[in-house]
């Protein structure tokens, strides 16, 4: 049972990072961006290309670091991918969404569907449909708890790295939103855009920051998904529904709500894979979503309108 929970935490940490950016878009930009999932896929593949390029320059950079399956080349590639994906998200807003904001939410949602199709097919054309991996190195799971305690608990070093880095990233973002001037301005724009504008907060600056942060987090989530499984051009669309489920479950606009929602969705999927089969894991996650929303219609941390 503990191992099922552990697997759910790994899945949930990936979903949580992607859900944070989607939650910020929903609360600040104020529309459901269905192209957000494709940013995860692009972030993962950009990291793969950057890592391969750095390895070609110096093969020693690809040597595994300690117990991990990756080396310095992938760590540097994550930074490159996060920056490029953040710029891609900002560029998408500048070219497409910014021009359509006055047309209303429905127009933006439909445009995001179109953007998702374009990004997915461009990625498929660029990388092909064959799954790829960041590393071919095999790892042995580390026993965190002995089998005598509820069946034991095992993690691979890569999984532990993902859990720790996800926690550090979320904590850093929380402190940024709480303590920095820009972060407080983003929170104000999320709560009351009109009042924030009257107070002298530049809405365009807030929107740019939202797209940059959301894109960077999406890239990080995509890389984590690629490390734990494999890279596929359709990985973004496969993660999109769990991302929305996590955002709605946790409460739109809440960072920790998105994290908790992601963990709950991850745990539900992990239990479903073990109990009823992998093909029903998304259905199990949405059953949990429906059950919680019947008790808390605004999400766990959502506020009443």
TrEMBL record:
GO BP terms: D-alanine transmembrane transport; L-alanine transport; L-isoleucine import across plasma membrane
Q: CDD domains under this entry? A: TM_PBP1_LivH_like
Q: Which UniProt keywords apply?
A: Amino-acid transport, Cell inner membrane, Cell membrane, Membrane, Transmembrane, Transmembrane helix, Transport
Q: Where in the cell is it found?
A: Cell membrane
Q: Name one GO cellular component term.
A: plasma membrane
Membrane disposition: Multi-pass membrane protein
Family, as annotated: Belongs to the binding-protein-dependent transport system permease family. LivHM subfamily.
Q: Give the protein name, as stated in the record.
A: Branched-chain amino acid ABC transporter permease
The source organism is: Rhodoferax saidenbachensis
């Amino acid at each position: 049972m503990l191992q099922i929970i552990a697997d759910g935490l790994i899945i949930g940490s990936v979903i949580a990072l992607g859900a944070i950016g989607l939650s910020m878009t929903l609360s600040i930009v104020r529309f459901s961006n269905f192209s957000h999932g494709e940013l995860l896929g692009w972030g993962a593949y950009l990291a793969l290309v950057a890592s391969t390029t750095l390895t070609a320059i110096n093969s020693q950079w690809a040597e595994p670091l300690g117990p991990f399956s990756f080396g310095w080349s992938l760590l540097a590639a994550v930074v490159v991918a996060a920056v490029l994906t953040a710029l891609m998200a900002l560029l998408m807003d500048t070219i497409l969404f910014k021009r359509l904001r006055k047309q209303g939410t429905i127009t933006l949602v439909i445009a995001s569907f179109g953007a998702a199709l374009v990004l997915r097919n461009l990625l498929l054309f660029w990388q092909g449909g064959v799954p790829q991996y960041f590393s071919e190195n095999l790892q042995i799971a580390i026993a965190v708890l002995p089998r005598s305690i509820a069946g034991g608990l095992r993690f691979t070093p890569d999984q532990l790295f993902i859990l720790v880095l996800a926690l550090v990233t979320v904590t850093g973002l929380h402190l940024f939103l709480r303590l920095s001037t820009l972060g407080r301005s983003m929170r104000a724009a999320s709560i009351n855009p009109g009042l924030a504008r009257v107070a002298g907060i530049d809405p365009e600056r807030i929107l740019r920051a939202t797209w940059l942060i959301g894109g960077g987090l999406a890239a990080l989530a995509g890389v984590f998904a690629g490390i734990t499984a494999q890279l596929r051009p359709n990985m973004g669309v496969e993660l999109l529904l769990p991302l929305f489920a996590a955002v709605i479950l946790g409460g739109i606009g809440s960072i920790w709500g998105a994290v908790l929602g992601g963990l709950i969705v991850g745990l539900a999927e992990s239990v479903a894979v073990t109990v009823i089969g992998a093909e029903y894991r998304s259905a199990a996650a949405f059953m949990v979503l429906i059950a919680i929303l019947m008790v808390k219609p605004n999400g766990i941390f959502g506020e009443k309108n």
